[in-house]
Amino acid sequence: MPRATADKLAIRELVEDWALWRDARDWERFRTVWHKDGTMWATWFQGTFEEFIKVSQQGYERGARIYHMLGGTTIDVKGKRAVAQTKVTISQRAPVDGVLCDVTCSGRAYDFLEKRKGRWGIVLRRHTYEKDRIDPVDPAAKLALDQNLLAQFPEGYRHLAYLQTRAGYTVKRDMPGLEGPALDALYAQGRAWLACKAL
Q1: pLDDT per residue over 157-198, tens digit each?
Q2: Cα 154 from Cα 151, distance rounded (Å)
Q3: Range of the domain at 32
Q4: Cα–Cα distance between 82 and 8 in angstroms, integer?
Q5: Residue 113 lies in a domain
Q6: Number of separate domains in the chain
Q7: Which long-range contacts (CB under 8 A, 24 or more apart) does 135-138 make?
Q8: Domain annotation covers residue 196
Q9: Which residues share a beta bridge with 120?
Q10: In the chain, what's the furthest Cα-to-Cα distance?
Q11: Are 113 and 39 spatial neighbours (Cβ–Cβ below 8 Å)?
């Protein structure tokens, strides 16, 4: 098998393992997808992967239920570095203003990877947030969102941010969306990574 094909298969498996092991809370195996200096950026968290594990488990114990469904992946490999983009739908269930709701948010996982001592691992995971929606679990329930709060968040993850804020999280308000300067900056960061520049 050509090396480029083998590298892409290994990276694809790693991306899939991230989602399965994170959502199953299989933290020992989840650690294996990262390099030791790996960091994670999401709407509600930015920090090391070990901190991410800690706060994810704490959130689960408080009732947070967050799941990831993956779609297609495209991978650019240059030497021992790679950038992988994977279609992802994030689903979170929580009470919103007294009504149990599901939020779904579609976007992409954007992974910066490096091959060290023969092993691919994530150095940085970021996301783009492209569109979302909120639905009461009970279709007959009445949900009236605070429009002033809702309007404070970017369009691509407005409802997800609303739910997470109501759940007590501090949400980052400048994450990349479907277009715009934040997305352009992420793409530039990806190109720099492949050119062997520091993050």
Answers
A1: 999 999 999 988 999 999 999 999 999 999 999 999 999 998
A2: 8
A3: 3-180
A4: 9
A5: yes
A6: 1
A7: 135/101, 135/102, 135/103, 135/104, 136/99, 136/100, 136/101, 137/93, 137/100, 137/101, 137/102, 138/99, 138/100
A8: no
A9: 115
A10: 56
A11: no
